[in-house]
Design goal:
By secondary structure, the protein is an alpha/beta fold. The protein is built from twelve helices and ten strands. The strands form two sheets. Strands 1, 2, 3, 4, 5, 6, 7 and 8 form an eight-stranded mixed beta sheet that branches. The protein is elongated.
């Protein structure tokens, strides 16, 4: 989304729907149609246009600003496979006819990312019918009005409205209603919220000079919007991310299973101080997160642009923090396994014969410190050797909640 004065639209873009508001502010919404290879893109474009037309009046009335939906060039997908919403990053609203899955692998009709202001609508769930009945037609009345309601609901999320804020109206959790023949209105509380944020809808832009300027702009953007970042981190369950990336976890765990039975690793672990072990772990986890961020090209925009919007900066900060928490989770996973091996598998009396130990007694602090040292090596090897076999998972978890 951007203010209407932020720049000229592409001349090829067609205005799918528009409605003037009571103020001079305006919001431009790009609509991307992404169709499966064997479906008719014109039908999906007509569906997207109609959904925008049905929703635009309520948006203008609730925010008092002008809304314009621009229909961009159609994108043809390579196959019919299901998609994660984070695969569509460049536009505000994506309309597709392939299945859409949430972070918990549940099929959903649509999802919205308030952080990046990206919404995705899938006709797949809207057209599904009860068992034994034919699929609903794309141009049917029930599909039409439920699609417009879903679009309005998702845009409400993009502007910060939540299910808990609603006492009826369009921000109630979305459910397909076969009898729906109109678009619900925003209730009074949500409408007051939308009025209060209307002037903040256009994204703040900056032209930072050099890496330090970009870093400062990212820091300022994060400081102004801590709630959005914390909410995205809470939704992402980032420390559990290594469980979804077996290649990363295997690359981290495999060398540690050898190192833990090495006398040299125990010598180093026993003779290093607690502060050194802690600093080594912190620096290694941070280095692993930064390595994955830049090597996997997870920052936005991916092409060099002089202009960086605040929402782009928030996305970058959130993705980095998700990676950082994921490395912390990986460290905790490997550390826990190392402690189990040290306590339950490694023969403790064997160490009393090691000449490098001044004190042959082994305490719990020694085991914890040695396990942390070995786990730190595992995190570094996991980031360097394993990487992210599916980098879209990180963006998906960072940006999109689990339900519409």
């Amino acid at each position: 989304m951007s203010g209407s004065g932020s720049g000229e639209r592409d001349e090829r873009a067609l205005v799918a729907a528009e409605c003037e508001g009571a103020t001079d502010l305006g919001v431009d919404v790009g609509v991307l149609v992404a169709n499966a290879p064997t479906t008719d893109p014109d039908r999906l474009r007509s569906f997207a246009t109609r959904a925008a037309e049905d929703a635009v009046d309520e948006l203008a009335a609730a925010t008092d600003v002008a809304w314009r939906f621009y229909l961009e060039e159609t994108t043809r997908l390579a196959d019919h496979d299901r998609r994660r919403p984070s695969e569509f990053y460049d536009l505000v609203v994506v309309v597709t006819d392939v299945p859409l899955v949430s972070s918990r692998e549940r099929f959903v009709p649509g999802l919205a990312s308030p952080l990046s202001r990206v919404a995705v609508v899938s006709t797949q769930r809207l057209r599904s019918a009860p068992r034994g009945e034919p699929r609903r037609p794309l141009d049917g009345e029930a599909v039409r009005w439920n699609a417009a309601t879903l679009l309005l609901h998702l845009v409400g999320h993009l502007l910060g409205a939540r299910h808990g804020d609603a006492d009826g109206g369009v921000m109630e959790p979305f459910r397909f209603d076969p009898e729906r023949r109109a678009v619900p209105a925003f209730d009074a509380d949500v409408e007051r919220h939308l009025h209060s944020v209307a002037s903040e809808i256009p994204a703040t832009e900056a032209r930072p000079r050099g890496p330090l300027g970009r870093l400062a702009f990212h820091a300022r953007s994060a400081a102004r919007n801590p709630g959005q970042i914390l909410q995205a981190l809470a939704n992402s369950r980032a420390p559990l991310l290594p469980l979804s990336l077996p290649k990363l976890s295997t690359a981290a765990l495999a060398p540690t299973l050898v190192i833990v039975f090495s006398a040299e690793s125990w010598d180093v672990g026993f003779h290093m101080s607690d502060l050194t072990a802690a600093l080594f772990a912190v620096v290694s986890v941070l280095a692993a997160a930064l390595y994955l961020l830049f090597v996997q090209n997870l920052s936005f925009p991916r092409k060099r642009h002089r202009v960086v919007t605040e929402h782009t900066a928030l996305v970058n900060v959130t993705v980095f923090l998700v990676l950082l928490l994921a490395m912390v989770g990986l460290f905790a996973l490997v550390w826990g396994i190392m402690l189990v091996i040290e306590v339950a598998v490694f023969p403790s009396n064997l160490m009393s014969n090691w000449p490098s130990l001044e004190d042959p007694s082994v305490g719990i602090v020694d085991l914890v410190r040695t396990g942390a040292f070995i786990s730190t090596i595992g995190v570094l090897s996991g980031a360097l050797a394993g990487g992210l076999e599916n980098r879209r998972i990180v963006s998906h978890l960072a940006l999109f909640p689990d339900q519409p």
